[in-house]
Design goal:
The protein is an all-beta fold. It is built from no helices and seven strands. It has a single domain, classed as Nucleic acid-binding proteins (OB fold (Dihydrolipoamide Acetyltransferase, E2P), Beta Barrel).
């Protein structure tokens, strides 16, 4: 799948992208009260760019210039932009 093929509310998203930008992580509190961190990165392939939500322990693994693979991820609309994430059921793999 290419980034240009991703639409909001898609499931089972598989993408390979190069990370070109990462924002500063920010804190959040889940509905259950659990504290965590989330950041937004921009991934790029030959079809375009897409925003990636990166959660908790994955934040420290991803750096600008890395190639990442998202397997079984999902896409959603956040602030009028499509974001992809590995979520709870997917996997974010960093390829050096």
């Amino acid at each position: 799948m290419k980034t240009s093929d991703v639409k909001p509310e898609m499931r089972r998203v598989d993408l390979d992208m190069k990370i070109v930008e990462i924002e500063e992580p920010r804190s959040y509190a889940s509905r259950t009260g659990k504290e965590g961190r989330v950041t937004t990165a921009i991934g790029e392939d030959d079809s375009g760019r897409i925003k990636i939500s990166i959660w908790d322990k994955d934040i420290d693994r991803v750096k600008v210039g890395n190639t990442v693979k998202i397997r079984n991820g999902y896409a959603r609309l956040f602030r009028d932009e499509v974001h992809v994430s590995a979520g709870m059921y997917g996997k974010l793999e960093v390829v050096e």
